Amino acid sequence: MKSSRIEGFYRLPVEERLEKVAEFANLKEEEKEILFKTGSLPMDIANRMIENVIGTFELPIGIATNFLIDGKEYLIPMVIEEPSVVAAASNAAKMARFKGGFKTSSTGPRMIGQIQVAKTNPHLARLKVLERKDEIIEKANEQDPMLVSLGGGCVDVEARALQTIEGDMLIVHLIVDVRDAMGANAVNTMAEAVAPLIEKITGGRVYLRIISNLATYRLARAYAIFDKDAIGGEEVVEGVLNAYAFALADPYRCTTHNKGIMNGISAIAIATGNDFRAVEAGAHAYAAMNGYKPLTTYEKDRNGNLVGTIELPIAVGTVGGSTSVNPIAKVNLKILGVKSADELSRVMAAVGLAQNFAALRALATEGIQRGHMSLHARNLAISAGAKGDEVEKVVEILVKERRIRADRAREVLEEIRRRG
Ligand code: NAD
């Protein structure tokens, strides 16, 4: 049996790593080439981004159109593998324009760094920490003069006693304004730096020093009024309200409801080189703070129009992380035209709301399959080997027959080729 224990794999140049993997997995020349051929993310940059790199991975960038947010026009780059998402967002944004598009707000970019203190009297230690808050803030801010010079930095310290299965603990929170950064590195550095001081103050033992992805001080909000006639009339309004009620009452539905929101939000996070796992974790944890609930709400205004709102933590940066390194992320940020991380997070909230509204409207009316399936049919046609004009021909037949299946795509393609 071949061994996955490859000594010094990380030290090898990319080509040699790829060679080792090819040997292990019996990759053919053309398969190696698929991995090694980069697009706009050069191999030397990729190789510095993570460890043990053997290639890059591409996904489509689609542009969602029609977004009017706080009176400003936006084109939204979305990186996603799932068909229908970009079209749905564009469509919802078009409908939102009738009543002025999306309006947004936020709490500002404040992240929480957690410091776990064990082996202490948590209640007394809490008061001692709060007593010396200024000293702790000063120590934290010494770590990042750049951030402080930009108007950010540690702005507050919180502390709370926590009962755990390992006994009572004190949990200290550094509240850090991270400006245009996602902030994890900045906050983690601060949390590590103040740990010895916290140990001295509390007489306890510090263990974890790490950012929290439940960024409750970094909330992005958006709302839109969807004109009842523009979205298809009273029936559609009632349908969406019913869909929302279902999600509010049932976590099985609510998970999918929130997943649809994240289709939009994560696609922008990826397009801009942001940590989409951080955004996803924060979103779902926020949704679960009082029992798992939808991140959006819907109600009817007195004229019968549908009012949608969204609120969730969105910790994203326009500097730092891979955003500053990946050339594709930089171009996508230029297309978005956002001036700050805060603006980016508010745009993402608006797109999340648009995405959710589009999904609920489709579900409450014709179902999502019709739109979805023609795009799915395209993927099947391409997987079956259709090239150029053949793709549309195969799609047309599959959709007309309502037999959108891989086996049928292959048959149809053969028929088309036979007919010439
Ligand atoms: P970073 O350290 O690359 O950049 C932030 C730094 O950039 C700041 O500390 C500041 O000194 C400087 N800076 C320059 N201009 C700035 C501006 N206008 N606004 C703010 N800062 C400015 O990145 P980061 O944002 O601190 O960390 C993000 C990275 O951390 C991501 O790659 C993420 O994947 C990773 N990470 C995440 C977690 C987590 O989410 N749990 C944990 C560890 C690491």
Q: Your description of this structure?
A:
It is a single chain. By secondary structure, the chain is α+β, with helices and mostly antiparallel strands. It contains 16 helices and 10 strands. The protein has a 4-stranded antiparallel β-sheet with strand order 3-8-10-9. Strands 5-6-4-7 form a 4-stranded antiparallel β-sheet. Helix 15 packs across helix 16. The longest helix has 24 residues. The site of nicotinamide-adenine-dinucleotide has 24 residues, from helix 7 and helix 8.
- Low-confidence segments, given as residue ranges, are none
Total of helices: 16
Main β sheet profile: 4 strands, antiparallel
Structural class from helices and strands? alpha+beta
Order of helices and strands: HHHEEHEEHHHEEHEEHHHEEHHHHH
What is the topology, as strand order, of the major beta sheet? Answer: 3-8-10-9
Strand content: 15-25%
Number of strands: 10
Distance between the termini: 48 Å
* Secondary structure: helix percent: 40-55%
Overall pLDDT, averaged? Answer: 96
Radius of gyration, Cα only, in angstroms?
Answer: 25 Å
Give the cofactors and ligands. nicotinamide-adenine-dinucleotide
Bulk shape: globular
Topology overview:
Layout: H1 14-25, H2 29-36, H3 43-49, E1 61-69, E2 72-79, H4 85-96, E3 102-106, E4 110-118, H5 122-131, H6 133-142, H7 145-149, E5 153-164, E6 167-177, H8 184-202, E7 205-212, E8 219-226, H9 234-249, H10 251-271, H11 276-287, E9 296-300, E10 306-313, H12 327-336, H13 341-364, H14 369-383, H15 389-401, H16 406-419
Antiparallel strand pairs: 1-2, 3-8, 4-6, 4-7, 5-6, 8-10, 9-10
Nicotinamide-adenine-dinucleotide binds at residues 144, 146-147, 150, 152, 178-186, 188, 211, 213, 275, 278, 317, 319-322.
